[in-house]
């Protein structure tokens, strides 16, 4: 359970065992979060949300286990911790992998099957503008214009795609054109969000803003839940 109050900035960790950590820290800081690296088990307990960056999921999996991070991460995800996974981070959040290493484990949480390196060798990396299902500000409780409209310029680097998604999974974006047209590349399920692409590489902060909103809402709910037993006592 996080120890921060709702009056302070949301503290959002970036899993920092491997991958592109710095860019995520910068994006989160720019959005008014307190962004911190997470490398040790006790640091997992101290965040209101977590980003799992792009990198190499097989290496990340090994290091997460070697640093005793697996148990606290799996537990906090099960408790409802908001987590955003980008690329290798999406693989880490998937319940099932296709084309994983035989011994590769994920943290899980998202009822999806991801296919690693799905776009194939010839199109290792590519960029495309995608339609994105931005959260409705009225639903998310955000007041005023969020600026979260219009397509996303998505950068894919040896990216996975979502091969199969369970009924509770909301599809946020699909590849629009080319041989992979229609493939799912952004999803949300409860407090878990994942993209096959890398929003941290450009100046567009909207995807991170979506995640910071999820973290803020979750914190509000948590503080409400903490207060309600006292209210019952005094009633
Ligand atoms: N192909 C990598 C993996 O399997 C992911 C690539 C990335 O995160 N840019 O983990």
From TrEMBL:
EC number(s) per entry: 4.3.3.6, 3.5.1.2
Any one Gene Ontology cellular component term annotated for this protein: cytosol
Catalytic residues identified in the record: 87, 198, 200
Gene3D superfamilies found in the cross-reference section: 3.40.50.880
Pathway: Cofactor biosynthesis; pyridoxal 5'-phosphate biosynthesis
InterPro entries: Class_I_gatase-like (IPR029062), PdxT/SNO (IPR002161), PdxT/SNO_CS (IPR021196)
GO terms assigned for molecular function: glutaminase activity; pyridoxal 5'-phosphate synthase (glutamine hydrolysing) activity
SUPFAM superfamilies: Class I glutamine amidotransferase-like (SSF52317)
Record-listed L-glutamine binding positions: 55-57, 116, 157-158
Single GO biological process annotation from the record: L-glutamine catabolic process
Reaction catalysis annotation: L-glutamine + H2O = L-glutamate + NH4(+); aldehydo-D-ribose 5-phosphate + D-glyceraldehyde 3-phosphate + L-glutamine = pyridoxal 5'-phosphate + L-glutamate + phosphate + 3 H2O + H(+)
This protein's UniProt keywords: Glutamine amidotransferase, Hydrolase, Lyase, Pyridoxal phosphate
Superkingdom field: Bacteria
Function: Catalyzes the hydrolysis of glutamine to glutamate and ammonia as part of the biosynthesis of pyridoxal 5'-phosphate. The resulting ammonia molecule is channeled to the active site of PdxS.
PANTHER family with a match to the protein in the record: PYRIDOXAL 5'-PHOSPHATE SYNTHASE SUBUNIT SNO, PYRIDOXAL 5'-PHOSPHATE SYNTHASE SUBUNIT SNO1-RELATED
Subunit structure: In the presence of PdxS, forms a dodecamer of heterodimers. Only shows activity in the heterodimer.
Protein family: Belongs to the glutaminase PdxT/SNO family.
Protein name: Pyridoxal 5'-phosphate synthase subunit PdxT
């Amino acid at each position: 359970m996080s120890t921060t109050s709702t009056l302070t900035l949301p503290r959002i960790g970036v899993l920092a065992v491997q991958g592109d950590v710095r860019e995520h820290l910068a994006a989160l800081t720019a959005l008014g979060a307190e962004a911190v690296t997470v490398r040790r088990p006790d640091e997992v307990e101290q965040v209101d949300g977590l980003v799992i960056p792009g990198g190499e999921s097989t290496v990340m999996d090994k290091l997460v286990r070697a640093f005793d991070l697996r148990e606290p991460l799996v537990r906090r995800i099960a408790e409802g911790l908001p987590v955003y996974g980008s690329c290798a981070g999406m693989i880490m959040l998937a319940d099932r992998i296709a084309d994983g290493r035989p011994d590769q484990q994920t943290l899980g949480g998202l009822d999806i099957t991801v296919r690693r390196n799905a776009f194939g060798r010839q199109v290792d990396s590519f960029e495309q503008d995608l339609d994105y299902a931005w959260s409705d500000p009225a639903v998310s409780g955000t007041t005023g214009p969020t600026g979260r409209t219009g397509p996303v310029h998505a950068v894919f680097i040896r990216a996975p795609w979502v091969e199969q998604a369970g009924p509770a999974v909301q599809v946020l974006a699909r590849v629009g054109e080319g041989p992979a047209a229609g493939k799912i590349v952004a999803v949300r399920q409860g407090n878990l969000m994942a993209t096959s692409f890398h929003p941290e590489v450009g100046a567009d902060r909207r995807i991170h803003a979506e995640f910071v909103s999820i973290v803020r809402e979750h914190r509000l709910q948590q503080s409400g839940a903490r207060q309600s037993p006292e209210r019952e006592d005094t009633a």
